[in-house]
Each structure stands twice: as C-alpha cells, then as structure tokens.
C-alpha cells in the first residue's frame, strides 16, 4: 500500500480500506459459483454434457442424454447457464442437468 492511495470507508467491516482492496473485495463477493450435477465448478466457455433427456419448451425438440453443449456462458444465477445449440435460440439450462466435460 502506498501513502498516496485513496482510502474508502467499508460499511461492512467499519474500517477504512485502500480503494483497490475494497474493489477486489466487492468483486469477490459478487462472483457466483455455478456447479454442475456432480459438483464441478463451471466457467464461461466450458463444454458440458447433458445427464438426462430434456424437453425444450417452445422448440418442440428433445435434447438427448449425452448431448454435448459447447461454450457455455454463466448468467449470474447459480442454477442457470446460457447455451447455444443448433436450431434452438436462447437456450438456458439448469446446472443440475449438466456435467462438465
């Protein structure tokens, strides 16, 4: 910590902290952990496999167990992941139905 760094009051701890330290603390608190069906931590860009057949509402299609979904995106919700799949727009899957590949 340098003496010329700005300090910001942290209401949670009741202490004055360097601005960079408080920003890092807030970013860590806002990070959401998304885990698959077996407990593996998921991240943006991961590939996942479906662990059961899923009926896709509005698409009139069923995604079969073992289907590979490439390049997922996290939504900020610990239970949902955003996916792309040919023929289905705006596919959102529950993390409990996928396994990290």
Q: Mean of the pLDDT scores?
A: 89
Helix content: 10-25%
Query: What is the global morphology?
Result: elongated
Q: Can you list the strand order of the major beta sheet?
A: 8-5-12
Number of helices: 1
Main sheet properties = 3 strands, antiparallel
| Parts with pLDDT < 50 across at least 5 consecutive residues | none
Tell how many strands the DSSP assignment holds. 12
Distance between the termini: 41 Å
Briefly note the structural class of the backbone: mainly beta
Radius of gyration: 19 Å
The SSE string, one letter per element, is: EEHEEEEEEEEEE
Q: In percent, how much strand structure appears in the residues?
A: 35-45%
Structure write-up:
The protein is mainly β and 101 residues long. Helix content is 12%, strand content 41%. The protein has one helix spanning 19-30; strands at residues 7-10, 15-18, 34-35, 41-42, 48-50, 54-56, 61-63, 68-69, 73-74, 80-85, 88-94, 98-100. The strands form five sheets. A three-stranded antiparallel sheet has the order 8-5-12, with no helix packed on it. Strands 9-10-11 form a three-stranded antiparallel sheet, with no helix packed on it. Strands 1-2 form a two-stranded antiparallel ribbon. Strand 9 and strand 10 form a beta hairpin. The longest helix is centred in the N-terminal third of the chain and has 12 residues, at 19-30. It is elongated. The chain starts with 6 loop residues before the first strand and ends with a strand.
Task: List its traits.
101 residues, mainly beta, 12% helix
């Amino acid at each position: 910590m340098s003496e010329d760094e700005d300090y910001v009051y942290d209401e949670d701890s009741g202490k004055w902290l360097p601005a960079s330290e408080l920003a890092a603390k807030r970013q860590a608190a806002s990070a959401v952990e998304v885990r698959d069906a077996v407990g593996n931590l998921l991240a943006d860009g991961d590939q996942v496999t479906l662990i059961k057949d899923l009926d896709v509402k509005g698409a009139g299609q069923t995604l079969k167990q073992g289907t590979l979904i490439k390049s997922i995106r996290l939504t900020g919700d610990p239970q949902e992941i955003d996916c792309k799949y040919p023929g289905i727009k705006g596919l959102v899957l529950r993390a409990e139905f996928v396994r990290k590949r």
